[in-house]
Amino acid sequence: MQLDDLYRRVIMDHYKSPRNRGTAEDETVSVQLNNPTCGDRIVLQMHIEDGKVTSARFDGEGCSISIASASMMTDAIKGKTLEEAAEMAEQFSKMMQGEPQEFEYEELEALSGVNKFPARIKCATLAWNAMKKGFHEVESE
Fold this sequence. Notes:
Blueprint (H helix, E strand, L loop, with lengths): L2 H14 L12 E7 L4 E10 L2 E10 L2 H14 L4 H15 L21 H22 L2
Antiparallel strand pairs: 1-2, 2-3
Helix pairs in contact: 1-2, 2-4, 3-4
């Protein structure tokens, strides 16, 4: 099996069976973002305790890239400090710009091919932008 096929399967798995989809009852922060270019929308809810993301859930509608990215991101940031999750977002951004990256949560690398389709980068980064906006809200309280 080629790497592209594997990556496509990982993306479709997260799209068809998204992890952490739904609403949270105990969120510390809730952020809603839209991508008007293609109609993707996300509501990201995170519970943050002692500077760590203890849970992350999302809901919304979007393309396979947007939903898969949100699913992977919510899995990847659980248990991370805000600093670690922000660093992961920076790495993800670099990957979207074409710089190869390695992640502890390896499934994120399945989205590396998105950078070949500039219009889809906003789809892949929507959840990450919601996370950063949520962290900014928490830090400014």
